[in-house]
Amino acid sequence: YLGLRVFLTLMIIPLKTNASIFFTSQSLAETLMVFSVGLMTLTTAFMIAYPITLSKIPKRFYLENYRDPSEVEDDIEQLYNQLNVCMIQDKLYLDRGMKINTLCQRSKIKLSEIRVILNQKGFDNFNDYCNHFRLIAAEEQIKNGVLERLSMEQIYESAGFNSHQTFARSFRKKHGLTASDYWHKIKARNS
Fold this sequence. Notes:
single chain; about 0% strand
């Protein structure tokens, strides 16, 4: 979004100055002017259609509701801990069809607030948050040597993952290596 704003600003420069200074051909300068106006119109339409406004921030997190701005962070941390307790105690992450609305109902936190909290805590989306807990469950099984009697498929399915691809991608993102390599590394360390 910031990139669009910078681009829009750069496109205004030829309009504010004499474009023929930059180009030797007057027709090329006029073509650029028409292109700039068209691009600015499209960009403006996009910004109107997809505004980033305060209305997308839940009212609970408005600074005017707090005596000190750092209290917002404390509130987000407290709510995040509340979400984690719900996920862990009820083992909601094991539900493969887990939806954010289920967490809203269980935690009594609004959907918009959950999205802000997860974003502030560095999660890409709700599935990324669920996969965080699923990975912890799978890691525990791997560390406890469950791979000696179960397959990797059984481990990731019992942790709540829907597919091997999602499990492998999440595991590699967190550890920088595959689950099998992780297991071999643990085995070597314990030997």
